[in-house]
């Protein structure tokens, strides 16, 4: 009788595999054999969602087994809005006694015994979401010198409660505060080893951070009176979202970070002033829906990305020789005309070559090709990959001409209707043939297109070349994605 692969796995390997599974996933595997069952019964990560009395009895039974057999617990996660304080303290006590390192509590309506948790020397990470801390006395002198990560989400906090929590966790490395209410200001100080801070929609007036060790800061806020992080000299990563900045604040901020390598700016408020990004250390820059960016002077930049619904008016003054990735994603508006394509070409000419340009159109328009020719003096940018998504159906050869006038892609990925795909195939074929012709009549924008090949993917996900005419029409379904390889 043959032995299946599942039966010859070593016990240690099975336990290792199970340790990477969730508690529920491991439970499903327990039917395979006694070894798999035993691995589940000693699973180090416990995750419980308690909704009914039956759930409480099940959790109680599991926790008592872990207590009686002294089974180590690495992670204890509890989601409940109906558990009693007595049950929570009992289960928590067992987890702490068995050396839990990661505690996560979600939706606990009864007061959470926070200082019982903080008293545990084994604890490395604490995550609290929608928990009740209001009726808990935060005056204990307990200090956890082992906790590394603290995350608070959707919790009522006063400034005193927050400061007491942080005072009791002076050596945390990572701190997350998300959508917590009751705070007028957030001050982080005397955190001796803090490396990462993320603040999301948790204070509308003042944020002040004094942390020389801070390396990563993420801030998402709809309104703020003052953001003070100038004393964080070692910052390497900065993410700002939905913040209204004025008075040259961002320029001053960036200039003070000599080691800043990663910068993300998302949806700055309408009241924000126009600003420049000047940094010799910056390596990665991501900008989304920000019209206020003026000049980008970053000689050591390795990656730049822009996402928005309007062509940015920013200028990249210096092109880094180290630039490996450059991408722009535009969700194009309906008012497409000669000016729009001219602005696109002018912006793309900031760089001699782009890694990827993604354009999303709701529909295409007829474009006056004669007017486009008046702007040929703008350098023609090269693009490695041009992604085009067109929702509507139509036959707009002048639109395709204008698109390829704005840049010369090596590969064009097209997602659209069959009719539009056929239009692209036919127009590109015509452009290639026209560029080879000696006649100057009706040439599509002096395309100089040497070769074009169109491909789709079959059911085996293998590329299949498409030809124009009836063959292509028969081979395409109602909505397709195809790609073209272009040689200029």
TrEMBL record:
Organism: Nicotiana sylvestris
Residue ranges occupied by any F-box/LRR-repeat protein 15/At3g58940/PEG3-like LRR domain in the UniProt entry: 89-221, 233-305
Gene3D superfamilies: Ribonuclease Inhibitor
Protein name as it appears in the record: FBD-associated F-box protein At5g38590-like
Organism taxonomic ancestry: Eukaryota, Viridiplantae, Streptophyta, Embryophyta, Tracheophyta
Signal peptide: none
Positions of the F-box domain: 9-45
A Pfam family: F-box
């Amino acid at each position: 009788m043959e032995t299946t692969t599942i039966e010859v796995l070593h016990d240690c390997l099975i336990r290792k595999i199970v340790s990477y599974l969730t508690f529920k996933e491991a439970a499903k595997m327990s039917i395979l054999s006694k070894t798999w069952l035993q691995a589940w019964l000693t699973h180090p990560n416990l995750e419980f969602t308690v909704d009914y009395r039956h759930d409480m009895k099940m959790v109680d039974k599991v926790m008592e087994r872990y207590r009686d057999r002294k089974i180590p617990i690495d992670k204890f996660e509890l989601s409940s809005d109906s558990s009693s304080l007595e049950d929570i303290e009992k289960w928590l006590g067992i987890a702490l006694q068995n050396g839990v390192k990661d505690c996560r509590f979600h939706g606990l309506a009864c007061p959470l015994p926070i200082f019982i948790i903080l008293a545990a020397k084994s604890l490395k990470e604490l995550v609290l979401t929608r928990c009740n801390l209001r009726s808990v006395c935060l005056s204990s002198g307990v200090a956890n010198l082992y906790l590394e990560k603290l995350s608070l989400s959707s919790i009522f906090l006063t400034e005193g409660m927050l400061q007491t929590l942080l005072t009791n966790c002076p050596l945390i490395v990572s701190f997350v505060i998300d959508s917590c209410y009751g705070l007028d200001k957030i001050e982080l100080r005397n955190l001796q080893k803090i490396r990462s801070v993320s603040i999301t929609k948790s204070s509308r007036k003042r944020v002040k951070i004094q942390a020389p060790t801070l390396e990563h800061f993420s801030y998402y806020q709809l309104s703020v009176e003052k953001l003070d992080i100038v004393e964080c000299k070692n910052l390497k990563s900065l993410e700002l979202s939905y913040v209204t900045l004025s008075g040259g604040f961002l320029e001053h901020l960036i200039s003070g970070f000599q080691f800043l390598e990663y910068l993300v700016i998302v949806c700055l408020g309408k009241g924000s002033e126009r600003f420049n990004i000047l940094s010799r250390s910056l390596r990665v820059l991501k900008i989304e829906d920000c019209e206020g960016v003026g000049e980008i002077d970053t000689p050591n930049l390795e990656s730049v990305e822009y996402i928005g619904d309007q062509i940015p008016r920013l200028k990249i003054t210096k092109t880094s020789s180290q630039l490996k990735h450059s991408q722009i994603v535009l969700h194009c508006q309906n008012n497409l005309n000669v000016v729009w394509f001219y602005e696109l070409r002018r912006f793309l000419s900031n760089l001699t070559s782009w890694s990827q340009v993604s354009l999303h159109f709701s529909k295409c328009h007829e474009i006056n090709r004669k007017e486009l020719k008046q702007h040929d003096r703008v350098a023609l940018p090269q693009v490695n990959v041009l992604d085009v998504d067109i929702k509507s159906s139509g036959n707009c050869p002048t639109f395709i001409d204008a698109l390829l006038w704005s840049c010369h892609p090596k590969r064009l990925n097209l997602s659209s209707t069959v009719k539009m795909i056929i239009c692209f195939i036919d127009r590109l074929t015509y452009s290639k043939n026209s560029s080879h012709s000696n006649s100057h009549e009706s040439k599509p924008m002096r395309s100089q297109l040497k070769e074009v090949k169109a491909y789709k993917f079959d059911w085996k996900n293998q590329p299949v070349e498409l030809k124009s005419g009836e063959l292509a029409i028969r081979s395409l379904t109602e909505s397709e994605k195809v790609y073209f390889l272009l040689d200029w």
